[in-house]
Amino acid sequence: MNRPTALVLHGGAGVLAERSYEREVAHLRDLAEEGKALLGAGEQAVDIAVKLVRAMEESALYVAGRGASPNTAGRYELDASIMEGPTRKAGAVAALEGFISPITAARVVMEATPHVLIAGAGAAEIARAHAIEEITDPENYYQPAAVPDGREIATGTVGCVVLDAHGALCGATSTGGTLRKRWGRVGDTPIIGSGTWADARVAVSCTGQGEFFMRANAAADVSARMRYLGSNLDEAVKGVLDDIAELGGDGGIIAVDSKGHVSAQYNSQGMKHAILHADGRIEAGMTR
Ligand code: ASP
Q1: Which structural domain range is residue 109 located in?
Q2: Which residues are near ligand 1 (CB < 6 Å)?
Q3: Alpha carbon nearest to ligand 1 atom 8, residue
């Protein structure tokens, strides 16, 4: 039996309309190609999501991982979360300092602890206990992507949603947070239901002004709209973004459903993204 597979990646909905994002879009396209090969080889959604998000974290092209910006206290506090559709198991880290791949630490929380969200020094301790790679030279490691050529973007989270060949969905999101965030500020990204969601119906990853996504319970609301309103995927994603706009916020959402339908929408100026459609086509860009 040939089950549909699909995936969507985002590199953040905070974009400057006049700036070129060719490098980021080319990178996302390459990752979508890699995801296609992994899906074709029968890899699990969770493994694919972690691998692709980690590649974005390490690239320094986005406001996540190496490209994150310091907070107002000059510290790099990173957030990430992951959720598996079939089991609704989830894991997240908030205000994590000192690790190359926050999404890998989030996976440890999901798989090796009875908890969903671990913050700060406690998150670092569990990451260290599981031999997650530490940053050895923090002074020189970070290359904030938010200030390209002296021009600033406020947001640039990364995310991935996958439907694998076994019918499993997974959503994953990682961020350095918003530009000049306060020390200790945590946004939507590590909050299951706000920044990330996956169940048997749909996998979702969000980017944008996190405070609004938290107040809209954005990621879980995509699934709720499909379940209770009978909305299709695009309608559900649009409904959530409309709700966020009504609150005064902006951002973007990527999602894939159990049938392999995909959605990548935003109400900001654009969202770096790449889509692998169920028919094998790959699309990548900043606007669509
Ligand atoms: N949503 C993230 C946050 O508020 C920022 C982003 O999407 O770039 O932390």
Answers
A1: 6-283
A2: 12, 14, 63, 155-157, 175, 177-178, 187-189, 207-210
A3: 155
Cα 173 to ligand 1 centroid, rounded to whole Å: 10
Q: Would residue 1 count as lying in a domain?
A: no
- In the residue annotation, 157 being an active-site residue is answered as yes
Q: What is the CATH number of the domain that holds 194?
A: 3.60.20.30
pLDDT tens, residue by residue, 4-15: 999 999 999 987
Catalytic residue among 5, 155, 157, 207: 157
Atom of ligand 1 minimally distant from the CA of 208: 7
Q: Please give the number of the atom of ligand 1 that sits closest to the Cα of 181.
A: 9
Asked whether residue 115 is domain-assigned, the answer is yes
Ligand 1 centroid vs 222 CA: distance in angstroms? 18
Our count of domains for the chain comes to 1
At 115-151, the pLDDT tens digits run 999 999 999 999 999 999 999 998 899 998 766 555 5
Is there a domain that residue 288 lies in?
no
- Atom 7 of ligand 1 has which residue's CA nearest to it? 207
pTM above 0.90, yes or no: yes
Write out the chain in H/E/C secondary structure: CCCCCEEEEECCCCCCCCCCCHHHHHHHHHHHHHHHHHHHCCCCHHHHHHHHHHHHHHHCCCCCHHHCCCCCCCCCCEEEEEEECCCCCEEEEEEECCECCHHHHHHHHHHHCCCCEEEHHHHHHHHHHCCCCECCCHHHHCCCCCCHHHCCCCCCCEEEEEECCCCCEEEEEEECCCCCCCCCCCCCCCCECCCEEECCCEEEEEEECHHHHHHCCHHHHHHHHHHHCCCCHHHHHHHHHHHHHHHCCCEEEEEEECCCCEEEEECCCCCCEEEECCCCCEEEECCC
Q: What's the gap in Å between 126 CA and the centre of ligand 1?
A: 24
Residue 245: inside a domain: yes
